[in-house]
Design brief:
single chain, 11 strands, 7-stranded mixed beta barrel, globular, FomD barrel-like fold, alpha+beta, 218 residues
Length: 218
Amino acid sequence: MVLLFPINYVFLLIKCRLPGLRRRQRHLAKGCKGMLSDYERYQIKSFKHNGHVHRIWFENWLVPERLLLPEHAAENMIVLINEQTLISEADGSRWTSKVPGVSFFIPGEWFNVVALLEAEGVRYYCNVASPPYKNRTNKVITYIDYDLDVIRTVDGDVMVVDRDEYEEHRRLYHYSALVQKKIERGLSNLLSRVNGDRPPFHEQSALHYYEQWKSSVR
């Protein structure tokens, strides 16, 4: 049996239900906006000892403190995610990153770590560098790059590279004895973490941050 209702009655039903529907839509939109706004966009800017810009990563998303894993929150780590971000070099050339990256900065430590999420697995590229400075107003993370890099391959091999560059810049920029001591200690602390599989050298952590961020922007 088909029930027929006057057209005015149908319009009245729709009118009554619209406020509730609109409230639910606003609530869902607010929830989605809140999730996206948790991640703030930052630049990462590295300098050389002489004050010249070395490299800029233009678009990086800061993981909010409440979403940090306990082992990273314990050290007040700064964690940022990028994907196909524009990168500017000291000579003015620009290029776009090919694989997602998760960057880890530890206040007070003379190194930083980038987990590169490649198809074969996670490769780590680590910079011996001054501790990070976080400018909340301008949304920029800055540090001084001190040449030496540590790479951990997908297979777990570890190597220290760019020693020649370090020696060249040490003489050219007149690194002080104190700076050299901090660089050496930073390298030692970095290698200790890498070889001991200590945070942030856990592949699943980097993948977790990336997937969590990715799901929030879909």
